[in-house]
Every structure is written in structure tokens, then in C-alpha cells.
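#lab-general

N.A. 3:47 PM
ok so I finally got the sequence cleaned up, no stray characters, all 375 residues accounted for. can someone with queue access submit it? mine expired

B.Y. 3:52 PM
send it over

N.A. 3:53 PM
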Amino acid sequence: MDPTHPRPAVTELRLSAFKSHRGAAFPLGPVTLFAGASGSGKSNALEAYGCLAGLGGGRELAEVFPDPVACVPERARPDAQGRRGFRIGCTVDGPAGPVELDLAVQAEPELRIVGERLTSRGQTLLTTALRDPGRRSVQAAWLTGGSVGVTRAPLPDDRLGTALLPLRVAGSTEGQRRVLAAAEQVVVALRAVFPCDPQPQRMRGPVPAGTGLLRGGCDNLAEVLRRTREECATRHAALVEAARAGCAGPVADLSARALPDGRIGAELGRGPAGATPLGRLGEGELRFLALALVLLTGPGVLAVDPAAELLPAQQAMTVLADGLDRGLDARQTGELLRLALLSCGRGHVRLAAAVGEGAGGARGLAGVSVVDLVA
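B.Y. 4:20 PM
back already:
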């Protein structure tokens, strides 16, 4: 076990050939900001991370990549068989040590996985390769150890092989146990990812009661605010404190309640000045409140499906926030970074976000890694 990484976490993102990126490797810390001008590839990096997360969660390739040709780098020429594709990967650190996952995807003439490799400390644990283009499968080989060495079997070409290994490997030999530990570590880290892009235009009005889990667009913010207020006084108090820093005017409280029609509405309490419904707040204030709530909460309140292999206390959730500073002023962005560092310092939340060229004023801030991209 690696005591420096008790919770599985993605510590490097590799974009060997994906959209605007070629031969790129980005180290990821607890708080990582991708900074650069429009067109520099910030969103592309977060998209690739989100795609790996979807595959780690068991989703099919076509669902994760609805427009696979758009993922192929520009000017990439097809081979003699008319094939083009892209390559992405990551490193996941955790109790099993660093584990590398690399994936080659064919986008044309048809979408399929054509190669996958899982390695740890220089040893190959799993490889897959497309042997027969006429079959919808890849030939997989994973470490067995002992007298057999490796086990070979076909796997589907539309799913991540690493995510399927826990169902295929018995774990009866030391080699198989190594494969299982590495695969489960990768799956745990990738499934605990929450892509978040608050949509203010959908957050203004009252919302129907639902699951109580915040969706990625944060359109059910009012419902989750009520749940937070009722279930966790400490978290609610921290959110009110953040609202004082990020919202204009006095803030005495942040409340949500059921309306006569059964829907849930929320408002900022202004003390003697009354209250301001969420619908009257500016877009930047709404985005700020939603992102603050995300950073102060966890998988139990967010619409994510973490792996069942580990208890929630042994997992680290990663928030992917494209345009973290979009519509926000320096004061609001600074408060979000304060909340991120506070939560990430406890080890249960990580943040990977895209910001403008100024990096949201985060340069030189202890605990924040800035990745500068050039268009």
C-alpha cells in the first residue's frame, strides 16, 4: 500500500492524440487549473478526463463519444485501410501504487477500441488488441502468474477492458490479485468524477421535488439547498459564509422551502432588508452558489455513482469544472479557490477546472497547480 495516496486519484492525464492535443501529459494535483486563451484546449482536456470517467463507469463507447470523428486531431490522415482515431490515458495513484491506463480508439470507419494497456511499476497487467476487424471484439491478455503466465480471452470492443476485469479475473494467484488491485483502483478513481457546468438560466425558478442529488447543470439547485439545510447544519453554515463573500449585499441566510404548488423555491435572506429569490440574482452569483455547494459537499449529495469497492471515506471525488471563472469576478473566483483548498486539504475532494488566461488570480497560491496552455 502507498501511504501517500490512501485514496485512489488521477494524478496525470495523457492526451497522446486527442482533438487539439498531441503528445501532451498534464500532472494533476488536488487543485489543478487549466489556463489559457479561447481555443487553447482547456475544455478538450477536461472533456477527455470526463470521457475516461464515463468508460470507467462502464458506459459504452458510443455513449461516451457521440461524435468520435470530432475527437480525432486535425490533419490526422487515415491509414491504408481508411482508419483514423485518437489516444488518451491517465495515471491513477493509490494503495496499489501508480497505475497507468492508455487507450487507443478508432473513430473511422467505425467506432471501436483497438488497443488498451494497463501497467504498474513497469509491468504490463493487461493488453488488448484488435486482431480481426470483422469481429466486434478485441483479444485481451492479462497477467496470471505462476505456470500459466497470462490468460487470453476476447473482450468487447465497445467497453473499457479494465472496468470488466473484476468480473473476469478470479484473484486466485498473486498475479491475478495484482491485476484486480490495479483495475479496481483505476475504476474507483474514474467513477468518482462529477462534471459540473452550472446553467444559471435553468436555476432561477422553483423546481419539482426529486432525488435530492445535484445534477451537473445544477438546475435543481433549490431542491439540494433545502436538503443541505435540513441534513447538515455545518455544511449549510459554511455555504452561507461563502454566500456572504460571493454575493452582493448583506446575506443573513440561504433558505429553501416547499411552495403551495409542491415545487421548491430558494432565496437569500437579507436580514431586516427581507429576502431575494434566486431568480433575481445575477448569473455570476448563481454560478458561484452552485459551485460553492459542489465544493462543500460530496457523492452523497451529487449525482455521481461511485464504485462500491471502497467506503465513501476511502474515496476522493473529483469535480470537473469547465469555465470555473466564467461570469465571476476576482472576489468570487478567489472564494471558490479557498473552498476548493479547504475541501481538498481534507483529501475527499479534488478539483480540475478550466479558467481564463489570468488563471483566476491563482498563480503562486499554495496548493494550486496551474497548467498554462497556448492556442
